[in-house]
Design brief:
The complex is a heterodimer of chains A (337) and B (557). With 337 residues, chain A is an all-alpha fold. Chain A has helices at 11-41, 53-56, 66-72, 78-100, 106-122, 130-158, 166-178, 181-194, 201-225, 229-237, 242-271, 274-279, 287-296, 302-334. Chain B folds into four domains: 15-77, no CATH class; 86-106 and 114-151 and 278-300, no CATH class; 155-272, no CATH class; 333-553, MetI-like (MetI-like fold), CATH 1.10.3720.
Chain lengths: 337, 557
């Protein structure tokens, strides 16, 4: 199909051209509308799941933040968090200044933002939604670190020219992505209860790390495909030992792949419900688990507020991954291959 | 090498010397250090392989422990059935000689009494009862009932032994009679708690085979369960029953171990003892013990491994007469598997229909605009599954946005709102939306590689638009359709969350049944068998995917 309609197009061609675009528009609408429609609905002033007449009339009275207030609670102390975040950010800035020599105010900003969030979250006690969110934030980063650490090493090993049993190893490492989650959950539930990990924090972390590993392997090996080996040889030639070579030459070049693999692993753990329901116990209830329970038992509009927050997070993550991908391509484009 | 001569006069491993060596000898080509080149290369290659493996090893071990071991454990559980032979070990042995057309003999019932007494004391009989209840309903209540009354079996014999000589009432009599000499010595006198693990005396074992076995089971059970010493506890009534059976069967006539005079006194007396046989005793507890079907079930599941769970998964059952169909009203799993496959198929087809135009549009637009539109595909892909499911749950409700719009347009009357959720339709709509990006992305990556000049060539040769598309473009896009289909189908048949939330009763998948058996009915073996079948289906599909697309071509985002 051509992008522009030629001036000599017949009537049938015109109908087809516009008809096809309308069809595609409808399909895009089907893809995106359900996600976007929950955003206005989450500001509903009443406990309804549909647009009230007041909302359709754009009456400000019909909109409210009450579901968000219920989600966050009101008692957290963002100011203390802000203070701690600023101090940590400042320390990092000073360290960076001493190490690299250029002044970078970015950590202070990040520290302040994170501090406000953390101060708000951790100031709350026993809130219905905050405890799950805290659990999610306690599980996902640790699981991500495990996946990224093991996964990056293995991806570097797999990208060597001579790897025995490469096919079999790859199949085993990718398997957590292939096997349906319910089967992984069932197996882990049986096995972890045998070895006493069922219902513990570490049980959930290990399970989530295993689920995240295929994503790290796939993204990092993809980055390594374009990696120019003569760079490491040159570094060795100039007297760098393998560890220095890895951290100063290879790591910066594959870093975009590692970070986006880590983001995939993070979102896998952060979004995961099935395995945590079986492997975890009430003490490890995560945000998606709380949403699942809420949706199954009695559905309350606070779920829409939670969903809106998650959509915002995924938009941010999508942007970061896209930026990283471009950066990676630029970096690899610079290196001769 | 040391005898190398030449203009440079260097000795040792230099390239020149290596060439000279190689030219001089007729042997294999040598490396610079004088070793055969082949071996040097092989060693270098081995070192490289080792290094690669060392890098991979930590992750491999991690995955094997945290992921592969659980899967293997599940496969094992789907055939494992040790509970019967562990809980009723003597009964299982006795049943080997059982003639299935008649109620088992007294020896089997006696074995059942010893096993059941120990199991009831350890509270294991209810677990076994609920396990066997999966196969024959009624066993659970029979076992619970028997567990309450089994300590009366053999009571008459206990009373008659005690009437014969009051020493039979003393725990120490029994302990001295049955215990090994060293064990008796260690544990006599004042003993705190359970004492050391009970050891049977070899003489007692030879003299009273059943009683010694029953007593050891008693001693060890009270030691581990109640933290009591056999020296301080009167044995169960079943031990008296066992001794009565041994003595009346003519054992122990030449017994000369400890308490020999008590035994010598009892041997002539037992002939006059009166009481119920074990079989009568169990019949008195519950008539059901005379039911051949109960015994058939116990016998059929006495092997440590069973195909029973797999048979149940395909609506068959193991009966004493062999493999049979389940009764009509209990056949659910074949239907459920069929429904899972059917709905996954419908979801896959609707994904193809919706994804093809989008992929076609994206691959034919200029890169700039297609990248923009691609974000519309990637955003749902990145959005939490629960967010998308809750969106559909909200939209499809009877009082939800879609029904509201339909009523407002006038397509549907307000009192006849459509039931869009908690049925198959709800599951299909929501899952098509959730899996659509997984179809679009592979199709898009294949269509992007189809050169537009082919279609132009076809048209310039006189093909109509439709012919050019159908005969030239479409065949080239089939690999993308195939890849997307298998991916979507694999993902769909294992889905749990969405069917659980929007599927209601009729829109659920086999995964929901697996979850039900793990968390509600606690029939883990059946859950494992259903999971194993599902896993086999997925692995076959995955193998196909690998053949068609190649595992290395999996790309993200």
């Amino acid at each position: 199909m051509d992008t522009k309609l030629p001036p000599y197009a017949t009537f049938g061609q015109r109908v087809w051209f516009y008809g096809f675009r309308v069809l595609c528009g409808l399909i895009f609408f089907f893809l995106i509308a359900p996600i976007l429609i929950i955003i206005p609905l989450s500001f509903n002033a009443e406990n309804f799941f549909t647009f009230t007449p007041g909302m359709l009339a754009l009456d400000p009275e019909a909109y409210s933040l009450q579901h968000y207030e219920e989600f966050f609670g009101q008692t957290g102390n963002p100011w203390r968090g802000l203070l701690i975040g600023l101090v940590i950010g400042a320390v990092i800035t000073v360290v960076l200044k001493l190490w690299k020599g250029n002044l970078n105010l970015f950590p202070i900003l990040i520290g302040a933002i994170l501090g406000v969030i953390v101060g708000k979250l951790w100031g709350l006690e026993g809130e219905e939604w905050m405890t799950p969110l805290r659990n999610s934030l306690a599980i996902a980063p640790v699981a991500t670190m495990l996946s990224v650490g093991f996964g990056t090493l293995a991806a570097i090993g797999l990208s060597q020219t001579h790897v025995p049993f490469k096919g079999a190893i790859m199949a085993i490492l990718i398997s957590p992505m292939i096997v349906p989650l319910i089967i992984s959950a069932a197996g882990m539930y049986f096995f972890y209860s045998r070895i006493g990990l069922q219902g513990t924090y570490w049980g959930v972390v290990l399970a989530h790390a295993a689920l995240g590993i295929p994503f790290v392997i796939i993204t990092v090996t993809a980055t390594l495909v374009g990696f120019d080996r003569s760079l490491t040889r040159a570094a060795a030639n100039l007297g760098a030992n393998p560890v220095t070579t890895f951290f100063r030459i290879q790591m910066p070049l594959i870093l975009p792949g590692v970070i986006s693999g880590g983001l995939f692993a993070f979102i896998t753990s952060f979004d995961e419900v099935v395995v945590v329901i079986f492997v975890g116990s009430a003490g490890q209830q995560t945000l998606p688990w709380q949403m699942f329970t809420g949706l199954r038992e009695q559905i309350s509009p606070v779920i829409l507020a939670a969903a809106t927050i998650l959509v915002t997070i995924s938009i941010i993550l999508l942007t970061v991954v896209e930026l990283l991908r471009r950066r990676s391509e630029r970096l690899r484009g610079l290196s001769p291959s | 090498m040391s005898d190398a001569t030449g203009p440079d006069q260097f000795t040792g491993a230099t390239p020149d010397n290596a060439i000279r060596n190689a030219e001089r000898s007729d042997g294999p080509m040598l490396a610079a250090d004088g070793r055969p080149l082949k071996r040097s290369l092989a060693r270098a290659l081995r070192a490289q392989k080792m290094r690669a493996l060392m890098l991979i090893a930590p992750l491999l071990v991690f995955i094997l422990v945290t992921f592969i071991a659980p899967i293997v454990d599940m496969l094992f559980r789907s055939v494992e059935n040790q509970i019967v032979s562990e809980t009723l070990p003597r009964t299982v042995v006795a049943l080997e000689e059982w003639d299935p057309s008649d109620v088992p003999d007294n020896a089997t019932f006696a074995a059942l009494a010893y096993d059941f007494m120990a199991a009831a004391e350890r509270r294991e009989h209810t677990r076994l009862g609920s396990r066997l209840n999966y196969e024959t309903t009624g066993i659970s209540s029979l076992f619970r009932q028997t567990g309450r009354s089994v300590d009366d079996v053999g009571e008459e014999y206990a009373e008659q032994f005690i009437a014969l000589n009051a020493a039979w009432e003393e725990p120490e009599t029994w302990a001295t009679l049955m215990g090994a000499a060293s064990w008796v010595e260690e544990n006599s006198g004042e003993v705190e708690g359970a004492g050391t693990l009970f050891q049977l005396s070899p003489t007692a074992r030879d003299a009273f085979p059943e009683a010694a076995d029953a007593y050891r089971s008693f001693a060890r059970t009270i030691q581990s369960e109640d933290d009591d010493s056999p020296m301080a506890e009167e044995p169960w009534n079943t031990v008296y029953l066992a001794l009565y059976r041994d003595l009346s069967a003519g054992y122990a006539t030449e017994y000369d171990g400890p308490m020999a005079e008590l035994i010598a006194e009892a041997i002539p007396a037992v002939a006059d003892f009166e009481g119920m046989t074990p079989r009568e005793a169990f019949e008195a507890i519950d008539e059901e013990w005379m039911n051949l079907q109960i015994w058939g079930t116990i016998e059929a599941f006495s092997d440590p491994f069973t195909a029973g769970y797999f048979l149940t998964s395909v609506d068959l059952q193991l009966t004493p007469q062999g493999v049979e169909q389940q009764p009509e009203e209990q056949r659910i799993y074949r239907l459920l598997f069929w429904r899972t496959l059917f709905m996954s198929g419908v979801i896959t087809i609707s994904c193809i229909l919706l994804a093809y135009p989008i992929a076609y549009l994206l691959s034919n637009l200029p890169t700039r605009s297609s990248n923009l539109l691609l974000i519309l595909v990637l955003l749902p892909f990145w959005t939490s599954l629960l967010v998308r499911t809750s969106a559909w749950k909200v939209l499809l409700q009877q009082q939800g946005v879609i029904n509201d719009i339909l009523v407002w347009i006038g397509l549907v009357a307000d009192d006849a709102r459509l039931a869009l959720i908690n049925n198959q339709l709800g599951t299909i709509i929501a899952m098509t939306h959730i899996l659509l990006p997984f179809m679009i992305l592979p199709m898009f990556s294949v269509m992007k590689t189809i050169p537009p000049s082919y279609v132009r060539a076809a048209k310039s040769l006189g093909a109509t638009n439709w012919t050019a598309f159908w005969r030239v473009y479409f065949p080239q896009s089939i690999p993308g359709i195939g890849a997307g289909c298998i991916l979507v189908f694999i993902l769909a048949i294992g889905y749990y969350i969405t069917p659980e939330l929007v599927g209601g009763r009729t829109g659920t998948f086999i995964s929901n049944r697996i979850a039900f058996h793990i968390s509600s009915s606690l029939n883990w073996g059946l859950a494992a068998a259903l999971g194993s079948i599902l896993l086999a289906v997925v692995l076959i599909l995955y193998w196909l995917y690998d053949r068609i697309v190649g595992i290395d071509n999996v790309k993200l985002g």
